[in-house]
Design brief:
Helices cover 36% and strands 17% of the residues. It has 374 residues and is α/β, with parallel strands linked by helices. It folds into 3 domains: 31 residues, no CATH class; 202 residues, Rossmann fold (3-Layer(aba) Sandwich), CATH 3.40.50; 97 residues, 3-Layer(aba) Sandwich (Rossmann fold), CATH 3.40.50. A 6-stranded mixed beta sheet has the order 4-5-13-10-11-12, with helices on both faces. A 4-stranded parallel beta sheet has the order 8-7-6-9, sandwiched between helices. A hairpin with a 2-residue loop joins strand 4 and strand 5. Helix 3 runs parallel beside helix 4. It binds pyridoxal-5'-phosphate and zinc ion. Zinc ion binds next to loops. Pyridoxal-5'-phosphate binds next to helix 8 and helix 12.
């Protein structure tokens, strides 16, 4: 049953076939039965690799890890209500993207691949660069020209070759796709192994709640790597009969770039073309998410919802979160704004989980600019 499967034409390929998309051009998913040995898990170090049997990297010798994961789940009071927040800004590179990068780069090492390409608005590029550095794999990162300086510095310090592309995020993706004709595409949106890493978010939440599912997850969505990972992780736990339900997923987008929110609201079969306006939440401003339909379908299956948040709401949430002692980047504050919008329609006792997705120190110029605008 271990195989790659196309989400468009259902063609299958061996799991160790070094390909990142189907012959038909479709997006690939992974069929793999995750298993959980709760006694063994309890004895292992507190990292995302404690769920070893659930991750399709065969030989331990290939694991590329910096002890990441098992991030604290902390009660934070927002709008007079205590909710549980995963501290995903505490990863080695400062964002949850390390979950995906650790598993994907481990698999890349296992496949014997020596050179990769990736494109991102910053954080995924930093994560892939860091894990490639650790594994001694050559890496080419494509970013939009206006990417935050902190992220650019980080990518270059890890030793990746940096390509700054003029124009939109989509122009950057096109340039990376061209390079992917030569090098393996370590893409966080296309490559299904990335989601085999982000799914550990769900395992950790479940273990931290005493092997129970929460009622509700409130997560950001740009390319949906955290959201689809969480959905996949909770599906694995349900199949393994460890939990009884998949939580309801509330997806948060920025009003100025919310194609999935629109597709959900208007019940569209295709993701509508969107022209991105400027937003504070650059990390979730994805006009054409590769797995858009998958994301909308996952939210629907959990009887969840989409919430769009405005620039003003993001800015207010950023200030409120920092004043509680948590220094997060503006993109991460969009999720907090979504939490605050959701809370009035929650019920008492509902177990709600969200995440601080990225560290504030990555976005110093943006943070300073917000201070100066006061
Ligand atoms: C990548 C990222 C997101 C959004 O994740 P997607 O996988 O694009 O849905 C949110 N916050 C931060 C800080 C990120 O780096
Ligand atoms: Zn196909």
């Amino acid at each position: 049953m271990n195989q790659l499967i196309c989400t468009c034409c259902q063609a299958t390929y061996p799991l160790d076939d070094p390909r990142w998309r189907c012959e038909c051009g479709g997006v690939l998913d992974i069929e793999f039965e995750a298993t959980f040995d709760l006694a063994k898990i309890a004895q292992r170090p507190p990292s995302m690799w404690r769920y070893r049997e659930a991750i399709p990297v065969w030989d331990d010798i290939n694991i590329v890890s910096m002890g990441e994961g098992f991030t604290p789940l902390v009660e934070v009071t927002l709008a007079q209500r205590a909710i549980l927040i995963k501290q995903e800004q505490l990863f080695p590179t400062g964002s949850f993207k390390d979950r995906g990068a650790s598993v994907l780069v481990s698999k890349i090492k296992e496949l014997g691949i020596r050179e990769v390409v990736e494109d991102s608005s910053g954080n995924a590029g930093a994560a892939i660069s860091a894990y490639c550095a650790r594994a001694g794999i050559n890496c080419h990162i494509f970013v939009p020209e206006d990417t935050a300086a902190g992220k650019l510095a980080q990518i270059q310090f890890y030793g990746a070759s940096l390509n700054r592309i003029p124009g939109t995020r989509e122009d950057t993706a096109r340039a990376a796709l061209k390079a992917a004709e030569k090098f393996y595409y370590a893409s966080h949106s296309w490559n299904p192994f990335f989601f085999q890493g982000t799914k550990t978010f769900a395992y950790e939440v479940c273990e931290q709640l005493g092997w129970k599912s929460p009622d509700t997850l409130i997560l950001p969505v740009g390319n949906g790597t955290l959201l689809l990972g969480a959905y996949l992780g909770f599906s694995d736990l349900l199949k393994a009969k460890i939990t009884e339900k998949i939580p309801k997923i509330i997806a948060v987008q920025a009003e100025n770039c919310a194609p999935l929110c629109q597709a959900f609201r208007e019940n569209l079969d295709e993701i509508p073309p969107t022209y991105k306006k400027e937003t504070l939440a650059e990390g979730i401003a994805v006009a054409k998410p590769v797995r858009g339909k998958e994301i909308v379908a996952a939210v629907k299956k959990t009887e969840g919802d989409f919430i769009a948040v405005s620039k003003e709401e993001i800015e207010a949430s950023l200030k409120e979160t920092c004043q509680r002692g948590y220094y997060i980047e503006p993109t991460a504050a969009a999720t907090v704004a979504g939490v605050k919008k959701y809370l009035p329609c929650s019920r008492p006792g509902e177990v709600i989980i969200s995440a601080f997705t990225g560290h504030g120190l990555k976005a110093t110029e943006k943070m300073l600019k917000l201070l100066n605008n006061r």
